[in-house]
Design a protein that fits this description.
The structure is a homodimer of 391-residue chains.
Chain A: E1 3-12, E2 25-33, E3 36-42, H1 46-54, H2 65-69, H3 77-90, H4 97-116, H5 120-123, E4 133-139, H6 144-156, E5 161-165, H7 174-188, E6 193-197, H8 206-210, H9 213-218, E7 221-225, H10 233-240, E8 247-250, H11 257-265, E9 271-274, H12 282-294, E10 298-301, H13 307-314, E11 325-329, H14 334-338, H15 366-371, E12 376-380, E13 383-387
Parallel strand pairs in A: 4-5, 4-11, 5-6, 6-7, 7-8, 8-9, 9-10
Antiparallel strand pairs in A: 1-2, 2-3, 12-13
Amino acid sequence: MSIEAIDFFYLSMPVVTDAGDGSQDALVVRVVADGIVGWGECEASPLTSIAAYVAPMSHGACKPVRDVVLGKPIEEPADIARLAADIEMECMDLLQAAHTFSGIEMALWDVLGRKRGEPVWRLLGYKKAHAKLPYASQLFGDTPEETLAGCRSAREKGFRAVKCGWGPFGRGGLAADRDHLAAAREGIGADGTLLIDAGQIFREDVDAAALRLAALDEFGATWFEEPFYGGAYASYAGLAGKQAKVKLAGGEASHNVHMARQLIDYGKVSYIQIDCGRIGGIGPAKAVADYAVERGVTYVNHTFTSHLALCASIQPYAGLKDHLICEYPFAPKSVAWDMSETHLTPDANGEVNVPHAPGLGITMSTAGLKRYLVETEISVKGKVLYRTPAL
Amino acid sequence: MSIEAIDFFYLSMPVVTDAGDGSQDALVVRVVADGIVGWGECEASPLTSIAAYVAPMSHGACKPVRDVVLGKPIEEPADIARLAADIEMECMDLLQAAHTFSGIEMALWDVLGRKRGEPVWRLLGYKKAHAKLPYASQLFGDTPEETLAGCRSAREKGFRAVKCGWGPFGRGGLAADRDHLAAAREGIGADGTLLIDAGQIFREDVDAAALRLAALDEFGATWFEEPFYGGAYASYAGLAGKQAKVKLAGGEASHNVHMARQLIDYGKVSYIQIDCGRIGGIGPAKAVADYAVERGVTYVNHTFTSHLALCASIQPYAGLKDHLICEYPFAPKSVAWDMSETHLTPDANGEVNVPHAPGLGITMSTAGLKRYLVETEISVKGKVLYRTPAL
């Protein structure tokens, strides 16, 4: 079979604020091959990723994603890997291409799984899918009281792990950060798993980040995520070398396998966090998971949007029993929830199970998608290159 | 003064082919502050980079470039650096933002230089601008005879250095590659500088690339550029460790300072090649030049487009006397030539001198720009976010 159609749907809340909440809009991809429909989702900036799909070619190594993928054969996983390699060469100079292709790649796995009646994690070579411990991913409150309330709410909803990130952390003094950490620990409870995300606030400043280690250890944080710019490997390695119990996590910005490997090899992180909507989809994410296993690093998904993205993000490490922690969008905006009819809700044990249904195992909601659809049009030389397609 | 206006102009040849020739289209930026007009150029995929400028915000760390830059104060070089830091944080999840901002950043330096009556290289701290040895950058011919003709033509036009890249190199057998190298050496002459660009053809395969080292040494190549994916540092380091006279070059894909540093630190390249139209402009490129000097690595510009981009690309290392080699678009398409009234033509000695005029020292051609202008329109929710502005 060949890839017959690829359609992008830009969804958004009516109002998008500048909070660090990635669930306010979405770019969903529908792929059709041999009449089978698969779905995927690209992370970040829907309009820009659509442009990378339809842009006129600049030269042989700067083609639009469409020219590399549409109409190509898709019979088995190796075909998806070949397309990914073609993207790397033929879209070499189109920076946004990795994000655009990510959603398409997910949808191709969904198509193949549906065609074969197999869940994607089985196509990836896993015999069994293990339950994951979801952490409620949320922003720090503006005050420690708000942070406490957020973490307590997560615990009351059955979450045994919580991640607090961004917001005021690292922007005020040490004492303020310590108050937030104390509040987060109190909220999730003494036996809960506490994860902290600094949102790159320390840029490259190892000393400033190191000043927070004592409080992170005092309140038993499991990991300290993205203290620095994603590419500041020397800073990561410098902080990893300090005496602390808390481990470093990072990797969400990786837009190819190399970047994730580098953060492991040179940045010395203990947790590698991969967003399938950015790294080029599920295949490269699985390659990172394999690499992490070989090096004693723990793989974690990065997901802040829909349950389609969540389900895709678990596939690459579904079969890794010891890689337990899973990012779970705790309080997504309604666009992220409504776009699918099915969701991955935690079981009675508070754990998340990836579907055993064919493909990604998520049923999309046409009504939900329509409700948030953003009409978009791009034309060049008077010719319409993109217009929001019909659902 | 503040940044009053930023306008993007998408230019293109009437027909764009899939040759590896980056001069077939262009994205030019015009910035106005306090009535002073500055110009810059973004590398690669004009439509996608425009979209990254106007895209609706996705969240606090995924803003369009416009929201971070337009209306902001611009009085001195520190203001440009501050904007670059803001872009890194506020456009963190917008991959294409680095390419979009690159052209704006160049134009801001042009504005500041014009305002102060100083060339940009002096604003960067250089006391003197040294002449550079331009190499004629061209593609390998389809046959060794074509490669010979191309290199001979460069020599006849006064070039003492030539770079051959892409085309059939690495795609056929060893003997074919050797024939092309022999032809290139014959064409540029025994005393000429010969540079070879593999265009990432060996992906991560150190052994395949290493098989070419003997012929590269036999024909006296100075550098072997991008044998691998830009991020495959371990492959670069592996090849750098082989016994060969030829040195490794790379770095053109760097879209931030970290990536360039990493290729030096982990990839062990001897020449770091920076495209100011991708790395975020002239400021980050200067930071790479400083870093290279400290580590005994030679800085080289990467430029395959206009003389505006060429002039911007020389600024970061204009004052580095020993960093002599300079990429020079040898046979650009007419769009790249016609957009400016002034050009950096080699002097009687065959060397290129960066202008002493204020700013970047390039005078743009309104007629030339108009000739290649591509009418483009982007609308979201019925509102026009971008329409080709007036020149």
